[in-house]
Amino acid sequence: MQELCLLCWAVLLGLGQACPEPCSCGEKYGFQIADCAYRDLEAVPPGFPANVTTLSLSANWLPSLPEGAFREVPLLQSLWLAHNKIRMVAAGALASLGHLKSLDLSHNLLSDFAWSNLHSLSALQLLKMDSNELTFIPRDAFRSLHALRSLQLNHNRLYTLAEGTFTPLTALSHLQINNNPFECNCGIIWFKTWALTTAVSIPEQDNVTCTSPPVLKGTPLNRLLPLPCSAPLVQLTYQPSQDGAELRPGFVLALHCDVEGQPPPQLHWHIQTPEGTVKITSPNVDADGHALPAALAASSQPRFRAFANGSLLISNFGKLEEGTYSCLATNELGSAESSVNVALATPGEGGDDMLGRRFHGKAAEGKGCYTVDNEVQPSGPEDNVVIIYLSRTGGLDTAVAGEGVSGQQPPGLLLLGQSLLLLFSTSF
Ligand SMILES: *[C@@H]1O[C@H](CO)[C@@H](O)[C@H](O)[C@H]1NC(C)=O
Ligand SMILES: *[C@@H]1O[C@H](CO)[C@@H](O)[C@H](O)[C@H]1NC(C)=O
Ligand SMILES: *[C@@H]1O[C@H](CO)[C@@H](O)[C@H](O)[C@H]1NC(C)=O
User: Fold this and answer.
1) Which ligand is the nearest neighbour of the Cα of 218?
2) What does pTM read for this prediction?
3) CA-to-CA distance for 406 and 400, rounded, in angstroms?
4) Which residues line ligand 1 (CB under 6 A)?
5) Is the dihedral of CA 13, 15, 19, 21 positive or negative?
6) For a pocket test of ligand 1, which of 32, 73, 75, 76 has the largest count of ligand atoms closer than 8 A to its C-beta?
7) Which ligand is nearest to the CA of 31?
8) pLDDT digits (tens, 9 = 90+) for 137-148
9) Structural domains of the chain, ranges and CATH numbers in brackets
10) Which of these, 64, 199, 223, 423, is most buried using a 10 Å CB contact count?
């Protein structure tokens, strides 16, 4: 039998069919097979017949798969790459393989895998990526694998799974994901529920366990108790409010980002000023307002002081601090953002805010308070709020509105459901 096969390969070779020198190529059961296993190869050799359907490169020394690595063999149905030293698979390395049904990348050193490669493998039925060093799978990695039946991701370094990762795999019947160092927090709790209800078989569930937090180390995911989890909610408020406040030039503007969420979200501030965007990981100062070690490198006294309690204080608020202030809260379940748009103006004059909308201040009864005509109230916590600070001294470079604006509703305001609040100052 073996001799027969050798003979048939000899015949094929005799016909002058191409085959890379270290490999053997032949036909078996109607498949065109190229066998390059155990050849000490350090790269995919060139020179395959274009009709190869099965290619084995198992047990070599391949360090990576570059773009277009299999361009010569677009008809491949099976590709065996197990037991190499592959660390990196470039974008476009597998993209030409629209007929591929089986792909084995197991027992490599993969940590850097261009998941976009999978988007073109819509015929894939078997995907083995077990025994690698994968830490993370993007949520949409498997979006095109509608024919996939078996997926092996066990013995990697996956610490979390994005909710919905397996949803596109409508043909999946076998998922192996044991022996990964999962962090058992709110981000992964969905998997327990999914695993309990899915028809997909998930073997070795006792080895699908938590590695952290320490109290849960070794606990199988399917025995996790419900955790209190909620996605972030943010609401941005500010001081001083417009209620009768008398502001002087150089006042401290205080924004406060009220954050809810479990686990407690990480807070970031993004500030777009005329000079560019400033990104701050909160906090950057301690409770006394002194710069924290991480922020010290940038400056001993941060211009924007972000406190751990969610407050952002800007001293000597002036023209250079005008802009859009956003607080972003992120935890394992998602993120939320709230913004406020802060502009300066002069009493009795109008101007443009950061979004180019015109406004006009006028004197109200009594205390010389300024307010905009037809003030709109914010309709919900998500609404951006525009604060206008009226400064008698800071008016020089403030755009001046024409008289005709008086009494008109700024057109964008109602549509956007935003509120225009006017603060005023007294100068001494
Ligand atoms: C592949 O091409 C060779 C000639 O290059 C031919 O002899 C062989 O039959 C083909 N195999 C398949 C499976 O089509
Ligand atoms: C489960 O994991 C442990 C620890 O890694 C290992 O010793 C054991 O063989 C695994 N069981 C199976 C069935 O893989
Ligand atoms: C947050 O802390 C700062 C500094 O201690 C304080 O000035 C500010 O008022 C606090 N914010 C709130 C909302 O309590």
Assistant:
1) 2
2) 0.65
3) 12
4) 17, 27, 30, 32, 49, 51
5) positive
6) 32
7) 1
8) 999 999 999 999
9) 2-223 (3.80.10.10), 231-425 (2.60.40.10)
10) 423
